[in-house]
Amino acid sequence: MSPTPPASPASHSGSPLQLPDLIYPPLPWTFQKAPPKTSLSPGQARSARPLVLNLIELIHWASFPLGFYVLAYIFVHANSIALHVESDLLRVFWLQLGMACQVFGGGISGILMHEYEGWQISPFRNILGLRQQSPPEDVKQILVPNFNNAWLRAVAYQMLFTFQTAGLGFFTLGVFGSRPLPLLLLLGGIAVALLGPSEPRTAFTRQGQPVLPLSWSLLIVFALNALANLVACFHFFGPTLVQAWPPSLLPWLAVVPTWLVPWFSLLAPLTVAAGGAYEGWFAESSFNQWQHFIAFVILTLGLGLYGLFYWHMVNGGVH
After folding, report:
1. Measured in whole angstroms, how far is the alpha carbon of residue 44 from the centre of its chain?
2. What is the pTM of this model?
3. How many other C-beta atoms are found inside a 10 Å radius of the C-beta of residue 131?
4. Which of helix, strand or coil describes residue 164?
5. Which of 16, 38, 168, 244 has the fewest Cβ atoms within 10 angstroms?
């Protein structure tokens, strides 16, 4: 009988793939970032410095206390805000729920993806394309230090746009009440997001890179709720902006015609949308980390505008 071969080290400790305590990057402090991913060009890698990545992480998390402050402001002044929605406190709750869905639900979806990626945006590779017989070159491309995970991004986008659709719909419901169209947009949007077909999917590209990985069904219901949300913002915030015009801190804005002032109510939703679009369209195709930072600064500014509009509503009288 031939001697039994010695057991390999893996037989005692198991494969590294079984270790639950592996992290990326393998560093003890969150402000310590991984080196630039190997898929980044030298020019792109220059912006993937720890300082820039920490600023990106900071501005993402900063949207939470800002959003929660706006939620708290609505809660504290619910009776005053209710005067603008036919004294219906339930509709004020829908307004709060809409903000919560957009800030927390949408925000945590993106943060989870960015945390997995080490807060770097880089070219994507889809792990679902890996096969048991795949060559080593393909296996190398799905390693976290090399490329980002396209399937993870697709899941994160689906969750993010689901929460955004719900948030937009809840705001519209709060403004207009339980009428057939707001209810249809909200409930239909949620139903399509959770039950609708995952195919066909978008095939948008910029500079040869795929962007906006979504199902067409979700993108369509999101767009419909976004349009309704613009109408709701104009109806809800526009009159109180007219009452508060010109702003006491910017008296020179008195030169703006009165008929134009209500349209400023669209600045909040459009600024939030501009930040998200800038990240998805430009940052995730150029892989410039500074563009990622700028995108979320724009988005956070939009959240701040919501807080400003609610402040004017509480302090500017009833329309």
Report:
1. 23
2. 0.90
3. 9
4. helix
5. 16
Query: CA-CA distance, 50 to 280, in Å (whole number)?
Result: 22
Instruction: State yes or no: cis peptide before 16, omega within 30 of 0.
Output: no
User: What number of other Cβ atoms are within 10 A of residue 166's Cβ?
Assistant: 25
The residue type found at 76 is: V
Letter for the amino acid at 156? Answer: A
148 SS3 class: strand
CB hemisphere CA count around 67 (13 angstroms): 25
8 A C-beta contact, residue 52 and residue 61 = no
Q: What is the CA radius of gyration of the chain?
A: 24
Cβ burial 197-220 (10 Å sphere, 16+ → b, else e): eeeebeeeeeeeebbbbbbebbbe
pLDDT digits (tens, 9 = 90+) for 24-40: 999 889 999 999 999 99
Rounded to the nearest 5°, which phi and psi values hold at 183?
-65, -40
